[in-house]
Write a structure and sequence with these properties.
Length: about 170
């Protein structure tokens, strides 16, 4: 059975009727913790291959991400692993919300943490450059510190800026 596309409303109707389906959200943990569809199973795309043992091969699997691209990738990977009955929710969670379907969590307006880090790092580098030209050349050190932090983050797999941003009020779960 080839991978099929479906719309959020159809999946919601199946869930509402109590149909025995698997709704799998392949977004990363920070995204999932901010906002999710009730009864969805969280299997991040980055760890999908290691987590397939919890999926039933006898049930339809509906894949969800933010916009649909990662769900397409997940469907292809699952198909290569021998799964069939795969369905990609077109438009992902964005389309789910546009259709006024229910979600859990208050993070709809909050960017994913990784995007917040990219924005903040870019803003700080730009600020360091502008201040070094307009006020004092030593401000270039701000850009250097951010660049060093990005390199260290890549090397260690941890991110100090993400840890700080995670504590900001807009990222805290109430």
């Amino acid at each position: 059975m080839p991978i099929s596309d479906c719309c959020p409303k159809d999946v919601f109707d199946k869930l509402s009727k109590g149909e025995d389906i698997q709704l799998v959200d392949v977004r990363e943990p920070d995204e999932y913790s901010a906002v999710k569809v009730e009864h969805s199973l969280h299997l991040p795309l980055s760890r999908l291959a290691q987590s397939t043992s919890i999926l039933s091969r006898r049930k339809d699997i509906y894949l969800l991400c933010r916009s649909g691209k990662r769900a397409d990738t997940a469907a292809q990977r699952l198909e290569q692993l021998g799964f069939d009955r795969l369905h990609v929710i077109k438009g992902g969670l964005d389309a789910w919300v546009r259709n006024d379907l229910p979600v859990e969590g208050a993070g709809l307006h909050v960017w994913p943490l990784e995007r917040q880090v990219r924005f903040t790092a870019g803003l700080l580098v730009l600020l360091g450059i502008i201040l070094s030209y307009s006020i004092n050349a030593n401000w270039i050190l701000l850009s250097c510190v951010v660049a060093l932090g990005m390199v260290m983050s890549a090397m260690t797999g941890t991110c100090g800026m993400a840890n700080v941003l995670r504590m900001m009020p807009w990222n805290c779960q109430h």
